[in-house]
Amino acid sequence: MFKQALIASIALAAFIPVAASAGEVQNRINTENARINQGVRGGSVTYGEYHRLDRTADRIQFERNRDLRANGGHLTPAQYHNLNRQENNLSDRIYFDKHNGWRQ
């Protein structure tokens, strides 16, 4: 009995990070959008840079929503890692665009 309970709790713990990751992805998207908007307000992100960054963020959001619909509201580990990689690239691009010297 104890062995079955232990196995069940380990299996449950293995799935909790994947389920929570969908919310983490959304929080990162919101943070990146806030960084983009701050760059626009501060004048460090040009009109063209804004549209490219916004389009990329929208594409990540669309892919997240599509993956969630396909898997009953959860992300697989591979989907999570793919979205995380895309968000890391977007974050790097936002930093570069905010610090490249171009001003509005």
Question: What are the SSEs and their pairings?
Answer:
Blueprint: H1 2-42, H2 47-70, H3 77-98
Cα distance spanning the termini: 67 Å
- Number-wise, the strands total 0
Output the number of helix runs: 3
Q: How many independent structural domains? A: 1
Helix-residue proportion: over 70%
Rg (C-alpha, Å): 18 Å
Largest sheet: none
Name the shape in a single word.
Answer: elongated
Q: What is the H/E string?
A: HHH
Low-confidence stretches: none
User: Mean pLDDT, as a whole number?
Assistant: 83
Structural class: mainly alpha
Question: In percent terms, what proportion of residues is strand?
Answer: under 5%
Sum this structure up briefly.
The protein has 104 residues and is mainly alpha-helical.
Key features?
elongated; 104 residues; 3 helices; single chain; mainly alpha
Characterize the structure shown:
The chain is mainly alpha-helical and 104 residues long. The protein has one domain (2-98). Helix content is 84%, strand content 0%.
